[in-house]
Amino acid sequence: MHHSLGLLQLGALSLVPTALGGVLFGLALAAPPGPMNAVIAEESALRGWRAGFFAGLGAMTADACFLVLAVLGAATVITETPGVQRVMVGAGGLLMLWFAYGAVQEANTVVTEGDSSVTAGDSRGFRKALVLALTNPYQVIFWLTVGIGLLEPGVVDVSSYVPAIGTDALTVQTGHPVLLGGFFGGIGLWITGFPAAIVAARTRIERLAPLIAWASAAVLAGTGVLFLLRAL
């Protein structure tokens, strides 16, 4: 009995690096500046934490959808059919320009978290980020390349790339549910903490909200133009 319990504890401990690796990978994917974080920042600055969180949840939902498509193999149609990929790039570019226009219109509108319109903005931010992510072919390509690597069973010895921490000190098991759980947990940490940081900054400097909205509009417009150029 005690022997079995000890084995279970050792097995659980051996999965700690896998879970941490998943969390770090999720954070590394979610944190870099881009259109998704621009939408989250805009929603957080103008409508509060809930709106920013729901926008992030929309982007994470798209990742979950792409994960399912990658498992089923259906997403390969996008990479194997250049016409479909071009249409998605163009549609994504147009959507980003439309959302950038909306951000400019709302740049001088600051809605406090106690306002009744904040709840209505939650679903709008969710839909905006979800549609934007679903029309982003590069997100699909990520799941067909790096994502497939996460799903295939195997072992990655991270310590082999950093000799100072010792051999087998950090072994990540790919294809394990713990890795995927940690991955989405890392994204969850970002979409929780990032809106909170934006709201905290907005509370200290009320004039920061329209500036964040303008910056978000600039990121969305710039990315939208690049998408359209690539589509053409």
TrEMBL record:
It is a multi-pass membrane protein. Keywords: Cell membrane, Membrane, Transmembrane, Transmembrane helix. It comes from the Archaea. It is found in: Cell membrane. GO terms for biological process: amino acid transport. InterPro entries: LeuE-type. The chain crosses the membrane at residues 54-75, 87-104, 178-201, 208-229. The keyword Transmembrane helix applies. The keyword Nucleus does not apply. One of its GO terms (cellular component) is plasma membrane. The lineage of its organism: Archaea, Methanobacteriati, Methanobacteriota, Stenosarchaea group, Halobacteria. This is Lysine transporter LysE.
